[in-house]
Structure formats: structure tokens, C-alpha cells
Amino acid sequence: MPKIFKAVTAIALLLISFAAHAQSKFTVSGNIKDKKTGESLIGATIRVSDNAALGAVSNEYGFFSLTLPSGSYKLLIGYSGYKEQEVSVSADKSNKLEIALELLESQLEEVTVSGKVNKITSAQMGMDRLDIKDISVIPVIFGEKDVMKTIQLLPGVMPAGDGSSEIFVRGGAGDQNLILLDDALVYNPSHLLGFFSIFNSDAIKDVTIYKGTAPANYGGRLSSVLDVKMNDGNDQDYHVSGGIGLISSKLDVEGPLEKDQGSFLITARRTYADLFLKLSSDTTLKKSRLYFYDLNAKLNYKLSKKDRLYLSGYFGQDDLGVGSIFGINWGNATGTLRWNHLITDKLFSNLSLIYSDYSYNINVNNSGISANIFSGIKDWTLKEELELFANPTNSIKFGIASIYHTITPGEVTGTNITTYNQPDNHSWENAIYISDSWKASKKWNIDYGIRLSAFSVLGGSNLYNLDQNGNILDTLHYGSGQIVKTYVVPEPRISASYILNDVSSLKGAYTHNSQYLHLISNSVASNPTDKWVGSNNIIKPELADQVSLGYFRSLKNDHFEFSVETYYKYMQNEIDYKDDANVLNNTPIEPKLLFGYGRAYGVELYFQKKVGRFTGWVSYTLSKTELQINGINNDSWYPARQDRRHDLAIVGIYKLSPKWTLSADFVYYTGNAVTFPAGKYTLNQGATGAEPLNANYWVYTTRDGGRMPGYNRLDISATKQLKKHKKFSSELTYGLYNAYGRENPYIITFRTDPNDPNKTQALQTSLFRWVPSISYNFKF
Amino acid sequence: MNKSNYTIPVFLLLAVSALTSCQKVITLNLQNTPPKYVIEANVTNQPGPYTVTITKSVSFTQDNVYPTVSGATVVITDVTANATDTLKETTPGNYTTSVLVGVPLHQYTLYVNAASNVFKASCTMPGVVTLDSLYSQLSGFRGNSYEIVPVYSDPVALGNYYHFVEVKNDSVMPSIYIRNDQLINGRVINTPLGGSDGGSKINDGDIVEIYLECIDSAIYQYYYGLQQSQNQNSASPADPLSNISGGCLGYFSAHTSSYGTIVIP
Known about the structure:
The complex is a heterodimer of chains A (780) and B (265).
Chain A: H1 2-20, E1 25-34, E2 45-48, E3 51-57, E4 63-69, E5 72-78, E6 85-90, E7 96-101, E8 127-130, H2 132-137, H3 147-151, E9 157-159, E10 167-169, E11 177-181, E12 184-185, E13 190-191, E14 196-197, E15 204-210, E16 224-230, E17 239-245, E18 248-258, E19 262-271, H4 274-277, H5 283-286, E20 288-302, E21 307-322, E22 326-344, E23 347-366, E24 369-391, E25 394-415, E26 420-421, E27 425-438, E28 444-458, E29 463-466, E30 472-476, E31 483-501, E32 504-515, E33 517-520, E34 531-534, E35 542-555, E36 560-577, E37 593-609, E38 614-629, E39 638-639, E40 646-655, E41 660-669, E42 673-674, E43 677-682, E44 691-692, E45 696-700, E46 706-707, E47 711-721, E48 729-737, E49 745-752, E50 760-766, E51 771-779
Parallel strand pairs in A: 1-7, 11-16
Antiparallel strand pairs in A: 1-4, 2-3, 2-5, 5-6, 8-15, 9-10, 11-12, 13-14, 15-16, 17-18, 17-51, 18-19, 19-20, 20-21, 21-22, 22-23, 23-24, 24-25, 25-26, 25-27, 27-28, 28-31, 29-30, 31-32, 32-35, 33-34, 35-36, 36-37, 37-38, 38-39, 38-40, 40-41, 41-47, 42-46, 43-45, 47-48, 48-51, 49-50
Chain B: H1 3-20, E1 22-26, E2 37-44, E3 51-56, E4 58-59, E5 73-78, E6 83-86, E7 88-91, E8 94-96, E9 107-114, E10 117-124, E11 133-138, E12 146-153, E13 161-168, E14 171-172, E15 177-180, E16 188-189, E17 207-215, H2 217-231, E18 244-245, E19 249-263
Parallel strand pairs in B: 2-19
Antiparallel strand pairs in B: 2-3, 3-8, 5-6, 5-9, 7-8, 9-10, 10-18, 11-12, 12-16, 13-14, 13-15, 13-17, 17-19
């Protein structure tokens, strides 16, 4: 441990020395935003026109700071899809800049993309930033443009299944992704079994995914970080936009609170999928409810030139049920209160108070029994981050974060049943971190940092001692608030790029990170009742070490981009389930789990055409993911559920005319590893003396020893820009999901052949074939 | 309340699949497995004889013809009463008791020696809970078929486990119904069997017998595993954990049994 503190002290001293060196220099700082909407632009570049080595990038609030040796300079400020702006600065002028960039009139123009963080030179690897404009034209199921579906088309990011929002990143499990909405943790990013994600893309400004080494300000999950930022709202003018689709509609209202000073944004969505159920001939389905709604809201206000306040929130709810007999509803609620403060023109502070909540409720009301089961997880987070733009070659972030988790494992109330209430489970997660983005030389860019995370298990709920076979020996009781155990994990990380020439670079990265919360889910489909559990005396924090290497190359004046990345990941304290573990009932979970190791490795290829009428990309991943857990498959390595040998995605977007945009995507991937039966036997079930009917039971030999058939699908869509009026514009989107009607397996089950009771057969259920959609979007 | 465990995923799947899904029979390249012994042994509080059936499993792709195992030595002992009964093979693979009388709260052991493979088990018969009555009602979920409601009183003490066997028109239905009293302890129970778990449809004119068995917790766990493997919605399906040692499939259950018959009008 002392080593870390030494490192932190050394870096702190370094910072002071940077400050001391700054005297013969001057600092240009300011904000970059979109001229028309006032939305701050994240990742815009500020370059010095005759010195390529000097420059800066705007942070996630559109702020930048650049310290230059005394003199006069011409700065070029650029952002992808926007007109580049030139600004003259010198040491004797005011150097607070408010830059408003203008969107390029026509996307058809052949323009060289300047601005936007350059993938070649930046030290960061395994990172992708989604272009929101792309999301709006890529075909998706039900015509509902979706962030989660779009990132699944990137290399190394795979969907959990057909139409699923859940992702597997570089061999990680579905619960190993840190999903943030305006810094608030999202515990379940799915609506309606995952066929929709909770992200309403109309309210989204920026989506960044880190597949490998994420900066030190992120932590808590092993595989990836998906950082989603909401729009701030237009601070120039009032706007209303919306969309009407076959199964969902949405509305978005935004406008200034006070011009240039503050703005608001409210978006709402509601699906009405259950209307289709009413058409069904099945009486159960007729009585069914199946819908969700969600709401995003954000306010921001500039208190002064140095202070800006943000308040943002999300609330979403799914409801599913049959009449009054049975119902389940679940949803997320998040809230973020944030204060940006400019301490000096080089030191940016960001203080946030964040609330995050996921819960579900099950109602059963049948034959005189009514029961309600409630379960959920709730977080309060306090975060302070300081960003020091020390000098043109170093930009330093340091901060602390503290999260208080409350998990309600299950409360049962009702009439004619025994009600009970398991005590809430509390834990406290803390982290302190520092990182530096260092332009070490013309050839080298290095991002490095360390995060020290600590997780304290708090008393109040039951903990157990287990014997060697996992049976409970005794129950341990600790007072509430008492710290039972604290895990401390130093998480160093480094990511470096070596620039070979103007158009190509080599990169390498290493991370060690930890995960303290785990999702207990043992069903084939993702389920709203899957439960989060915290680490404790039995469930150890999951740990991962990842090494990655890559080659990045830009071609034809940056019209094309190509990259190869390869990774190796080693994981500890991975969780799998004992045979027949009932993880859903209310008995202690610890005896049902097994722990072991994981390893994942692979190669990711990515080729993108960035400019022109035809744009798109091809991504391919070759990978392997295995687990070794004592007690499963004779303690030998076996494929993890998310193990996929091949994963291919091809995306094409073609601007046919100013009116029409056509797009298509094709995906292929190897099927999941699953457990299939190898044999069968019969039982009479009891001693009734009667002959059993279709009493065939399955014999299983190897966990995950089978494979689902491969998956492939083509989606197409066409978007027509309707006649533009002065203020009103609208478009129609036609889509066809699974255009050639491939029957992709969603689940495979085994049964007695209904036509020949002497045989058994495998039955494949597919969900979506030829799902057409039409949606109308408008804006005024 | 175990109902909700599998109701949800099945229901969700049902709702979504109704929109767009389709099914087809496919051929998979499944692993083969060497035959395993399958032992099914029941002792009840009803008059004997009691039967132990020994068969072998076959590979998935073979016909549903299960070889019987003959020539085994099968012994059931009433440990509490200190009485031993060596079973006789009456038909191939079926071994029956001659003197044993099942008594609630007695502990029983099973010994099987088949071609020098030894299997052993022990099970205590729980106290008696009797089925009071049966009635039928229209299914709340389906609305167009019936569900059977067994009525019985759960004893005051916590820790009762139940297994129901549904015999419809003289055939044992494959659905596995199990319950515990975690949320319903000490009450009169009139919860219908089934719900939306894919249980067999009951229609007009059907004759249904329901057996209420009081089982011990190990057998409850066994049937839970069997139910999981039958429902096929677990991500890690496995053979149910048998209470018989020696590496075989099946179970040894000493349970109480009572039954009722209902004719759907």
C-alpha cells in the first residue's frame, strides 16, 4: 500500500512544479458550443495553426484550456461535421474564448474531417465514440433508434442475443459493463426484456465506450465503460421534436431558461406494444399489459462566468401483467446534481451528487392470496473531480468518489401469506484517483493513472460461514453501520501511443481493475428480477488484468480508417452457479455459488469509410473466452456463455439524394455456449401405479458443452426527408429488421416428439423474422 | 410463492413470442453419454408392496426405450423399527417389498447392488398432511381451460414440503408441482396447481386424480432440479441432485400420500 501513496505524492509534487513553470506563458481557455443549439461540444479540438504539437481537446462540458509560451498564435477550432473556426490569440489580449461552431450545411460535401479526437495520435485505445447522427440512420428493430443496438456493431462488443440490449465486451459478462447516464449508474439498461434500451436517443449528446483500459476516473466494473451524456437543452431557442412509430411514440421539448445562460430539456417516450396483444386470439394475451414509458429531464444554468449548475434526471418504468392476477413492474430512476466551477483558467472542478435506483415489484393476486414482492438497489454517490490543464503537454485529472449502496434483497407483503422482510444490505464504495494525459514527445502520447478503490461491507444483514462444501456453518451478525470487512484494490492503468508517421500509430495498454457488485442471473433470457449482490466475506471482488496492443492507420487523407487491436484478459473470482442452484428464492445465495478464474483473448479488426455519400464500417472479432471454476466440468477450463469465436458486423449508409438516405447492416456471430442434454431417462414420479405420459428427463454431462447455431441477419432502412418549411422539418423512416427472414435461435428446448412418443427432438424458437417498421419524426 | 420463479420468464417469453416468434424442429450434433443407472424408489404410508424400479438412461438420439436392470440386490430397511426387507424382482427391473409397512416419521435406507455397483440412500418419512378436498375452476391465466385446486391445511410447524402428482385419464402428467410452506406456513391452502407454467391443459370430461405427497427437504430439492431441467429456462441446467449415493440418476423417497379424484363436468 505505501507504494501507492508514494506514487500519489510524487504526482502531486509534479503538479506543483508544473504550476511553477507557468510564468513565462499564458493560458487560453473557454467553452466550445454549437451555434444553433448552444449544446456544448465534447472532444472538439483546438490546434495551433503552425505548431502541430500544441493543442487541446474540450472536456465533457465543452471546456478547454491551453497554455502557450508568450506570443501570438492562430488557433484552429474544429469538430466533426462543423465548420472550422480560426481565432487569433496573444499574450496581451483577453484570452477567455466563447466559441460557437456552425454545423456544415450539407453532409454531402466532400470534407476532410478535422477536429474530433484523432484516433491515430491519442493514447487512448479500445475506445469508440458513437456519432449520434449515425445512430439515427442505422436500421434497428421496431424502428426505434437505439444506442445499445448501435454499439453492438462495433468490434469487441457483442449482443447477448437476438434483439437484446445487453452487451458482452471482450469476453466480459453482461454485468461487467459500467453503464453511466450523466454519471449516474444504470443497473438495468433494458426495457421490455431488452428489446429496447432505456436510452432515448433523442436526449443523448454523446456515447463513449471504453472496451479496455478506461481512464482512472471510471471504476467498478471489469469489462467496459459505457458513458452516456444527455443533451443540455437548447439555450438559444424553443424547439419541439417528436416521433410516432408503430409501437412507440416520443416527444422532446427544449429551450432557453434565459438565452445563453441556461436551458431545459424534457423528453418522454411511451410504447404501446400491448395493443398488438389485444389482436391475439389467445385469451391470456388479450388480458395482458406490456408497455414502458420513460422520461428524461435536464436543466442547466450559468450562475456566473465561472460556475454552471446542472440538474438531470431519468425515470423509466416497465409494466407487464395479466389482468389483475399477475403483474410485474420494474424501472430505473437516476438523478444528477452537478456544479462545474472554474477555479482558475487551468483548473476545472466538477462536483456531483448522484442518485441511482433500480427496483422491481411483483404482484400475484389469485385464489384469495395476494402477494407483493419488492426488491431493488439504491445508490447515493458524491464525487469531486479536478481537471488541471497544467501545460500543453500534461492534462491531469484527480478526484474522489464515494458511493453508499443499499440493496433490498426481497420484501414480501400481502394477505393470506406469511409476510417477511429480509434486512437491507449496505455497503460503502470509495475511490481516489489521479491520471495524467501526457504528450511525452512528438512520437509518444501516454495516459497513465492509478485508482485506489475500497469496498466496505457494512453490518446489519446476515453473513455466513461456509464449510468446504459450501454449506452454511453459522450465521454472523454485525450491528448496522459496523464495518465488517474492507477490500482495497490499487488499480494502475497505462495506455500509450507511438506515432509511426502522420497516418499511423502503434498503441499498447494495461489495466488492473475490480468489481464489487455482481448480478446473480441464472436464466437463459435476461430477466428484470435478476438480483445485484455486493461483495462480502464469501463473495470476493472480481479482478481483471488486461493487456492490449493495437495498430491504427488512417488512409486517403483520413477518408478511411483502419485498426487492429488484440487483447488478453485474465479474471479472478468469477462467479458461476452450482448445479440446479435456485437463485431466485429467498434463501442465502452464497451456498449456491462457485468461484474461479476467467481468461479471454481476441483480435478486433475495424475498417471505416468516414467521408462521402457512402459511409460505413466493417468490424470483425475473433475471440475466445473461458472459465475455470472448481466444481464445474471436473475443474477444467470450459467456454463461458459469452464465448464467441467469430463476430462480424457490416454497416453501410448511402446518401442517395438530399431527400433519401439508405442504410443496411449485416451481422454474423457464433452461437453462445450452452448446456445441452446428452442423454435421457424415464421416471414414474411417485407411486401412483399409473403409467407416465411423455416422461422423458434429460441427462446433462458438460456445462456449456453445446453451441447454439450461428446467428446472422440483415436489416435495411430508408429515411426520407420530407419537405422542409421555414421552421418545421420532418422525416419518414421505413425499416425492415431481419430482411431475409432468417430464423435465428433464441432458445432451444427439448421435448418428446408430439407425432412419435418413441422419439425426442430439439425445438428451436426464433423471435423476429421480417419485422417491418415505419416511423415519423418531426422537429419545429 | 415458488410460482413466480418460473412464471415470469415463461410469461415474458410467451408475450413476446406471440408477437413474432416461430418454432421449428432442428437437428443438433449432441454429445453421447454412456448409460447411467436410474433408480426410482418410493416408500409411502399407504399399504405396500412398494416398488423400486431400476432402468438405464440412453443417448438423446436413441428411441425412448429404456433398458431395465435385472438381477440386482435391493434391500430397504426401516431403521426406526429395525426391520429389513429384501425385495423380489417381480417383472424385469421392478423389485417389490414383501413385508415392509411404511410409517410416518420412520427412517428408511435403501441398498442396491447392481452388477457390483453399490448405491445407498436414506430418507425419513415426514408427518402426514391429508388432502381435504379438490375442486376445479377456470384457469385465471388461460380462461378457456381448468385448473385443479387441492385444499389442505399446512401444519403449524415450519418446514413442510409437498409434491403433487397429477394423473389425468389414467396417465401421470409430466408437470412437476412442488411447494414449500415458506410463505404460507400454518394456513389452509387453496392455491391452484399450475398457473402459467405450461402444466397440462384440463378440459371438460377429464378425470383427474391428485396425489398429495409430503416429502423431505432433499426430495424437494431433487424435484426442484427435475423441474428446472424440465422447464429448460436455467442457464446452467444439470442433473437433479439425487439423494442416492454411488453415481446414479433417480431418488429414494419415503413420503406420505393421500389422493382425491375429480371429474370435470
